[in-house]
Amino acid sequence: MLGMAEALLAAVVMALIIIACRALPFLFFAGREPPAWLGFVEAYMPAIAMTVLAVSSFTSIDWKKPAQGLVSLVAGLAVILLHLWKRNALISIMGGTVLYLLLSALPLPI
């Protein structure tokens, strides 16, 4: 368990790292155009990160329990369908999360 001093130090360090991550691009590219590869990373990194998170979440499912696998697959499919329909990441993620929580609360056979 962290004490108050350690927790405060951790929060300050995280805040400094976030500020540095936001300030460094302005320092590096002040007065000149950023390289082309940075535009690619900027455009595709959110989708790549979400894909990695989705794949890693499906790998932790105990597929020997059909109810758990089915709930996860239905919620994942709901996220995909909501996103294709509304094209809004917040709606699709929240909708899938709420559906997953509702289905997980049902007394499904294991």
How far from one another are the termini? 35 Å
Helical/strand content category: mainly alpha
Instruction: Tell me how many strands there are.
Output: 0
Mean pLDDT: 89
Proportion of residues in extended strands: under 5%
Question: DSSP helix count?
Answer: 4
Q: Biggest β-sheet, characterized?
A: none
Number of domains: 2
Radius of gyration: 20 Å
Low-confidence stretches: none
Q: What is the helix/strand order? A: HHHH
Percent helix = over 70%
Shape: flat
Question: What report would you give on this structure?
Answer:
With 110 residues, the chain is mainly alpha-helical. It folds into two domains: 33 residues; 76 residues, no CATH class. The radius of gyration is 20 Å and the shape is flat.
Secondary-structure blueprint:
Layout: H1 4-28, H2 36-59, H3 66-86, H4 89-105
Helix pairs in contact: 3-4
Task: Provide a concise account of the structure shown.
With 110 residues, the chain is mostly helical.
What are the defining features of this structure?
single chain; 110 residues; mainly alpha
